[in-house]
Amino acid sequence: MNTYPFVIIISILLIIMWAYAAISKLLELKAFKQALATQVFPVWIGKILVWVLPVVELAIVGLLLFQKTQILGMYASFGMMLLFTLYVGGAVFNIYERYPCACGGLFAKLGWKKHFRVNIFFTLISIIGIVLLESGR
Fold first, then answer.
1. What's the per-residue H, E or C state across 54-94?
2. What's the pLDDT tens digit per position in 119-130?
3. What residues contact 31, with CB distance under 8 A and at least 6 apart?
4. How far apart are CA 94 and CA 110, in angstroms?
5. Burial level of 29, CB count in 10 A (0-12/13-18/19+)?
6. Residues near 47 by Cβ (< 8 Å), separated by ≥ 6?
7. By CB atoms within 10 Å of each CB, which of 23, 53, 68, 115 scores lowest?
8. How many other C-beta atoms are found inside a 10 Å radius of the C-beta of residue 133?
9. Which segments cross the bilayer (predicted)?
10. Cα separation, 55 vs 21, whole angstroms
């Protein structure tokens, strides 16, 4: 069975999600900086992440756009989504001393539990994309 159409669908979903995440951060940079300043990690990390996150997210979009780099894009998507999912899971399961605020865009409006479910979905489709691409090698 040709699984590549599924890889294309997964790639499109991930491209839309990463592009939206990066662009919304950049378009609302002031709000994104303020959101990062209220997170559970030190402020200096937020000052780095304000630029690193959108750049990495756009780099993942670039990797997913081309068949030669798609597998790297899938692994990068999985890694980033796993980190984001663990972080959001910390908010859902009250692991942090204080409640961090969501970082803008649609995700800020979802609430932590829905955000967690969305993150799990994108983490899983990244894994599926990896499995499909690796099995096709």
1. HHHHHHHHHHHHCHHHHHHHHHHHHHHHHHHHHHHHHHHCC
2. 999 999 999 999
3. 104
4. 17
5. middle
6. 36
7. 68
8. 21
9. 6-27, 48-66, 72-96, 116-133
10. 11
